[in-house]
Recover the amino acids of this structure.
């Protein structure tokens, strides 16, 4: 119950941040606040096991959130760099697509999910499969240089940041 309540509160605060300035009661409309409360309760019920597996409250640590905010800088820089690289490859036609395997050595499901999403959001890469036994990721990459690339070639040190956040 505690994890559902915490998840609902976090979801409601995130909802308020995303909808700020759209109404007339303080910064929100009454319909938005009612919808936010309802959606947050639903998110709390269904999402509690995703955020707090086995009653583990490590994501309530504010230091982890500071690491997450710090992670956004390198992530956005990598996204900008990848956008330029993909544009270059589209214009010149120099692509060598393929699927490669990386071993990020992340232990938690949250960490693997966060890395997979970060890779997928970065242009030119797409997370295709996760080996659940070894937590290896199979990535479709737009420019495969060799069959066993270094992890930094694909995900720019994301696992180091994610390890600080999720483990």
């Amino acid at each position: 119950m505690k994890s559902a309540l915490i998840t609902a509160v976090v979801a409601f605060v995130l909802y308020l941040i995303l909808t700020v300035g759209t109404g007339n009661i303080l910064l929100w409309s009454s319909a938005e606040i009612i919808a936010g409360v309802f959606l947050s309760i639903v998110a709390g019920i269904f999402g509690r096991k995703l955020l707090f597996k086995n009653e583990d409250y490590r994501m309530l640590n504010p230091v982890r959130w500071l690491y997450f905010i710090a992670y956004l800088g390198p992530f956005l820089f990598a996204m900008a760099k990848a956008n330029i690289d993909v544009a270059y490859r589209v214009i010149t036609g120099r692509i060598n697509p393929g699927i490669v395997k990386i071993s990020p050595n992340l232990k938690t499901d949250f960490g693997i999910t966060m890395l997979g999403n970060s890779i997928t959001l970065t242009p030119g890469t797409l997370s295709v499969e996760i080996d659940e036994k070894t937590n290896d990721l199979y990535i479709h990459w737009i420019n495969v240089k060799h069959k066993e690339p270094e992890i930094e070639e694909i995900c720019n040190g994301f696992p180091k940041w994610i390890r600080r956040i999720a483990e």
